[in-house]
Write a structure and sequence with these properties.
Layout: E1 3-4, H1 5-8, E2 14-18, E3 24-25, E4 27-29, E5 39-42, H2 55-60, E6 65-68, E7 80-84, H3 87-98, H4 117-128, E8 135-138, E9 141-144, E10 147-150, H5 158-170
Parallel strand pairs: 4-5, 5-6, 6-7
Antiparallel strand pairs: 1-3, 2-7, 8-9, 9-10
């Protein structure tokens, strides 16, 4: 599956860019360890780390583009550089578009509160799984049938969530 960066960035406010927006993108992630050839690296600036610290590694893996809130750096003329205001929001939007907005095909139940969310999720999942396929996403990770992906974060990033949901939907 590939899509043009221009298509993915439709309706995204771009502050500046260098390189062609017509490049074809084969995957999107915020995690430089998961990048592949012609991928799009969304370099998120956090409180402790800046995703741009991993840009050299991403370029070595053959990425086609980087999306960041930082100004274009002329040292990276071999890739398309896109500057946006909020890279995390853009990540969510373009990953949704890349995976054909799979969430529109799914029913979602959210569980909030201080205590017992995981227990309640397990009960609901057990009940619903008798009649339909269910995916559980929570503190312990993401589950679909016998497939378990451990939790790196309590709330997975869109670039981790959408591929998992797409695989679950296909099975």
């Amino acid at each position: 599956m590939t899509q043009s960066l221009k298509t993915l960035l439709r309706d995204v406010d771009i502050i500046a860019h260098t390189g062609s927006l017509d490049v074809m993108i084969s995957g999107i992630t915020h995690d430089s360890r998961k990048l592949g050839e012609n991928g799009c690296f969304v370099a998120i600036k956090g409180f402790r780390q800046d995703g741009l610290e991993y840009l050299d590694s991403a370029v070595e893996k053959g990425i086609a583009a980087v999306i960041t809130s930082s100004k274009p750096d002329p040292r990276y003329s071999q890739i398309t550089w896109v500057q946006v205001k909020n890279e995390r929001r853009v990540l969510s939007k373009i990953v949704s578009r890349f995976y054909n907005d799979i969430t529109r095909e799914l029913y979602t139940i959210g569980i909030t509160g201080t205590n017992a969310k995981t227990t309640i999720m397990s009960f609901i999942s057990a009940i619903l799984s008798r009649e339909a396929k269910t995916v559980s996403i929570g503190t312990l990770g993401m589950d679909f049938g016998d497939i378990h992906v451990g939790a790196g974060l309590t709330t997975p990033e869109a670039s981790d969530l959408y591929p998992f949901l797409t695989d679950a939907r296909a099975n």
